[in-house]
């Protein structure tokens, strides 16, 4: 077994001059960075006083699941001789908010649309989504189901 280590930096940028004096006195804006990489501008969901022009944690969770699945899927396809020429995903997540204001995701549906090079590759291309889900680091770390509604075409 190997252990991998990751580091990111988060900086709250929403102090408008009064800090967190009250719930409306600050913005929910923040920057995420990692050494040598572009900054990701984040905020909370607009439902929680966030900036809709910035990514929120819920969207980033979906993007993490979607991208991890895709990376495993492409790896497995390359090993299986399935030539993928295009891949897009329209991920959907459902989060329930509880009475005390907290919440949790109850499910995520990934909807990969894959274009393969030949008709003979479609069946295997569809099958490999199951294996990609089993291998995905992020999906394996979630306490809610991650479903797949994939579509392959030539």
Q: What does the model show?
A:
This protein is an alpha/beta fold and about 150 residues long. It is about 25% helix and about 25% strand. It has 2 helices and 9 strands, in the order βββαββββαββ. It has helices at about 55-80, 120-135; strands at about 10, 30-35, 40, 85-90, 90-95, 105-110, 110-115, 145-150, 150-154. Strands 1-2-3 form a 3-stranded antiparallel β-sheet, with no helix packed on it. β5 and β6 form a beta hairpin. α1 packs across α2. The model has no long low-confidence stretch (mean pLDDT about 95).
**For the residues shown, what is the average pLDDT?**
97
Element-level helix/strand string:
EEEHEEEEHEE
Q: Strand order, biggest sheet? A: 1-2-3
Q: What is the first-to-last residue Cα distance?
A: 38 Å
């Amino acid at each position: 077994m190997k252990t991998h280590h990751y580091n990111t930096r988060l900086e709250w940028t929403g102090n408008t001059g009064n800090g967190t004096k009250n719930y409306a006195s600050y913005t929910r804006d923040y920057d995420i960075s990692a050494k040598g990489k572009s900054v990701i501008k984040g905020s909370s969901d607009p439902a929680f006083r966030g900036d809709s022009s910035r990514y929120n944690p819920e969207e980033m969770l979906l993007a993490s699941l979607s991208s991890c699945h895709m990376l495993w899927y492409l790896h497995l396809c390359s090993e299986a001789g399935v030539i993928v020429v295009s891949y897009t995903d329209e991920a959907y997540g459902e989060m329930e908010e509880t009475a005390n204001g907290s919440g949790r995701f109850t499910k995520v549906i990934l909807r990969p649309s894959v274009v393969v090079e030949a008709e003979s590759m479609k069946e295997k291309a569809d099958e490999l989504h199951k294996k990609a889900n089993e291998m995905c680091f992020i999906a394996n770390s979630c306490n809610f189901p991650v479903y797949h509604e994939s579509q392959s075409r030539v």
